[in-house]
Every structure is written in C-alpha cells, then in structure tokens.
Design goal:
The protein is α/β, with parallel strands linked by helices and 487 residues long. The protein contains 13 helices and 18 strands. Helices cover 27% and strands 22% of the residues. GO terms for molecular function: RNA methyltransferase activity.
Length: 487
C-alpha cells in the first residue's frame, strides 16, 4: 500500500478522459540533447503547489532518461529503448487525501514534505452532505481518503472507444470500525449521492461502483482491513496482456494501464514457449497469468505476500481458456524467507518488487543459482537439505498453494534453475544497486532493457530488464582469447 507521503498524482480536470491532445513522435535510444518541446507541456494549474509532478516541460523525456541510457550502455545494452506512450489523461487510478472542513473541504495530494493537502476543488458531495473531513491531529472526522480507479473494460464497445467510455470505481476510506458505527449514516448518504448523480440512472453515467474501507488507526497506512461493497458492480475488470484481469479495490493496480499493457506485451517476448515460470511479488497474478495464456507455459507459480490479492487471482484464473495445458498456482507467502525453494524448478523468474528493490536474501539466492552447474550442486546442497527438512508449520503452510490448477502436462522432477531473470522496476536507484550485485562476478549479464513512461511529468520510469545467467558472449570470447595468449 502507498503511504500518504507517496500518494499518486492526479490531474482531475475530468473524472474520465474524453479527448487527448495529438500524440507526439518519441525518439528512442540513444538519448539526444534536451530541447524544450512546448507540445509536451503539462499545462496543469496545480503544478506550482502540488507535489505530484516534478517538471512541466518535456513530458516525453524525463531527465532521468539520460542516466538510464548511459547505465545500460555501460552494461552492454546498446539497443535500449524508451516508450513514452500517452502523455495526458493517462491516469486510471488515484488516491487522494481528504482534509479541511465540511464547508471548505480539501481533496488532493500532500504538499511535498508535509501533510498539507493541495486542493483540487469542486467536491460538491462533501459540502452538500456536511461530511467532516479527517483531522490528523485530533483523530476525528469521517472521510479520510478517496481512491478512484477507472475501468476501460467494456466488450460492447469497439476497442478504440473503450478508453473514452471508462467508468470509475470509488473507494471511500471512512474513519470508523465498520458500517455499524454511529457515523456510518453519512457514509451511506455520500454513497447514495454519488450513485444518484453519476450512476447508470443519471444524465452522465461515470461511476462503476462505490466501496467503503474502514480505517481508524493513526498511522500513515491508507487502507484498513475491512471493506464493504455499497453500490454498482462488484467485479472490476480490465483487459491486460491478453487476459481479463480482476482487480479488487484492496489489490495493487497500475495507475497507467495503457503503459502497463505495453510493458506486458514486450515482456511476453522474452518468455520462451513451454517455460516453467516463477512470478515473485506477483500481486493478483496479472503478469504470471498473462504469460501462462500467451506463451503456452508448462507451469506458472505466483508468490505474493498480500493475502487480499487471492480473490482477484481466482477470478482472473477463471477467465483463462479451459484448454490451457499449464499448471498454475498462487502462494500467499514472503518469497524472501525461502528463495531457493521457490527458484528451484523454474526456467524463467519474473520479479516486480516494490520501490526499495529485491530483498537481500533473494539477491543472494540468485547469485548462488548463477554459479556453474558443478558449483551449484555443492553450494545449494546444504540449503536445499535444510529446506527439505523444514518442520516449522507456518513455513510448511506457506509452501502449500492457496490456489492451484492441475494439468495433464508432464512436469519433470529433475532439478532445474532459472536461466532467465525478468526484472520489472519502479525504483531506478534500487534497480541499479540490484543490477550491480547480480552482474558482479559474472553471475548474470544484462541482455535487453526497455523503459516505459508510466508517470509523465515525474522522474519515475518503469524499467523492464532481461538478465541471462552467466557472463555475456563478448566476455566469454575475451576469456578464450586470454587463455590462448597464455598458452
């Protein structure tokens, strides 16, 4: 979950996008000298005060791109590419803080380095119903946060029109234990107000559904553990990476779904057909299920620490073709506890860690796996023996699949280890650190790299990096030449 200090930015000129400016042709690597391009300006009235965006010019080319390009070139990737995508009205998910007073509510992001809300005005529902915004100092108030997520999934419309006709799932974070609390009457009033004015019976149907989340703690955690569906459709669908993906309001969802879809399509090219795939930090399993469906994988194993993602995974799994010959499982556990246990038996491992990067224990396990086959047997023997003799009940329970689909495919029991590592990163600095650890001692080498402009107007980019086990081909040739010269 995001914390208030890292709330996502939102340009709420309209709840649902209706028309985007003309697209601008984007150059790929190598990066050229920067020139201000007025056709790629933010043009947001909140830019000076809001912390959501760091620059208002050159949305198509964040300054961090120069460092990214040089880093990959220095690591042997000469054909690095950058995909800028849609620059305006791309956001499909936002979390906004609610503060102020019933007469003058403040709904928006925090000013950088503070908990002062930068207002995105004209919230009629709060004023009309006299809803009390949350006060952090006293702990009193009713509405703490609002999450809005847009679904563009509508099979009755042509594909090109679905984005323009998206509907919004609204989640109201309420300052009470549950719907039976004394102040819950206003929660239902606000829900009814939204549904009446923007539901299917209104003149402008914008809202897909309304949910309530109940949160009473004084921490920076946005969501509590209790949810209740109030209005509209219960299931929220999006078509991503060739599959129908279910995303509950409690599950992590990408804010830029179009850019995420582009990344998934690119990622699929690096998964050989018939692979056994391990998807770590899998969330609701969108990445793992998409490669299962499009790459005819023998097996896909998803590992995720957030138990709330299970329901979405099960719903998405139910939409896959019944003829799919792939053993699929989802495990609710922390992969950093037993990384070697999870890595064993997979040809390809996909990691999509949080901004802080991979857990050190996982980096260490990947380094061990990268050793030559003879050394692997020696180095891993003691670790695997300990894993097989494990008796702690919570570890044994975690190994059991929470969700599993068997297949008639023949799954070999021989010991295999990943030869391909696909790393998706939203934290550039942590990725560089992990990359240096992985390529050190020639355990892994970078083969391909791409970046995606998930958050135009910021210095945050999404990286898709493909590692192969062992040294690069050019390095192997150098070693052979050195041996010949010494002979």
């Amino acid at each position: 979950m995001a914390t208030p200090s890292t709330l996502v930015t939102a340009r709420l000129t309209a709840v649902v996008p209706r028309r985007a400016p003309p697209r601008v042709a984007i150059p790929t690597s190598p990066v050229e000298p920067y020139k201000n391009n007025l056709n790629c300006s933010l043009n947001c009235p909140h830019f000076q005060s809001c912390s959501g965006c760091s620059h208002e010019l050159n949305l198509d080319r964040p300054h961090v791109l120069q460092d990214v390009t040089k880093f990959f070139e220095d690591n042997g990737v000469k054909d690095f590419s950058f995909h800028s995508g849609k620059l305006w009205e791309w956001r499909c998910r936002a979390k906004l803080a609610v503060r102020g007073t019933p007469d003058e509510p403040l709904v928006g992001l925090y000013q950088e380095g503070t908990h002062n809300v930068i207002d995105i005005p004209l919230c009629k529902g709060i004023v009309e119903l006299n809803i009390r915004p949350y006060d952090e100092d006293s702990g009193f108030g009713e509405l703490r946060y609002v999450q809005m997520a847009v679904t563009t999934y509508n099979t009755s419309l042509p594909l090109a029109e679905r984005y323009l006709e998206g509907k919004v799932q609204v989640s109201l974070v309420w300052n009470s234990r549950d719907e039976r609390s004394p102040n819950s009457g206003k929660l239902f009033e606000l829900s009814n107000f939204l549904w009446k004015n923007a539901g299917p019976g209104s003149s402008m149907h914008l809202i897909h559904s309304v949910w309530a989340n109940f949160q009473t703690t004084s921490t920076n955690v946005i969501f509590g553990h209790k949810w209740r569906h109030l209005e509209g459709e219960r299931d929220f669908w999006e078509h991503l990476g060739g599959i129908d993906a279910s995303i509950d309001p409690s599950s992590f969802g990408q804010a830029n779904t179009q850019a995420f879809n582009s990344l998934l399509r690119k990622l699929q090219n690096y998964v050989p057909k018939g692979s056994s795939v391990l998807d770590l930090y899998s969330g609701a399993g969108v990445i793992g299920l998409s490669v299962a469906a499009t790459r005819k994988c023998r097996s896909v194993k998803c590992v995720e620490i957030n138990k709330e993602s299970k329901a979405s995974f099960e719903k998405s799994l139910s939409r896959l073709p019944k003829t799919l010959e792939c053993a699929i499982s989802w495990h609710n556990t922390d992969a950093s506890l037993e990384p070697l246990h999870w890595l064993e038996g997979s040809d390809v491992v996909i990691v999509d860690p949080p901004r802080k990067g991979l857990h050190p224990s996982l980096v260490d396990a990947l380094q061990k796996v990268s050793l030559s086959s003879k050394k692997v047997a020696t180095k891993l023997e003691s670790s695997m023996t300990r894993a097989k003799n494990e008796k702690r009940p919570w570890i044994l329970r975690a190994r059991e699949a929470s969700v599993q689909v068997e297949t008639g495919a023949n799954l070999d029991s021989e010991q295999i280890w990943p030869s391909t590592l696909i790393y998706i990163s939203c934290g550039w600095d942590s990725f560089k650190e992990d990359c240096r650890s992985l390529v050190g001692k020639n355990g892994w080498h970078l083969e391909k790299a791409h970046a995606f402009n998930f958050f135009p107007g910021t210095q945050s980019i999404e990286v898709l990096a493909i590692f192969k086990r062992g040294p690069s081909v050019s390095l192997k040739k150098k070693k052979k030449k050195t041996k010949k010269n010494h002979a």
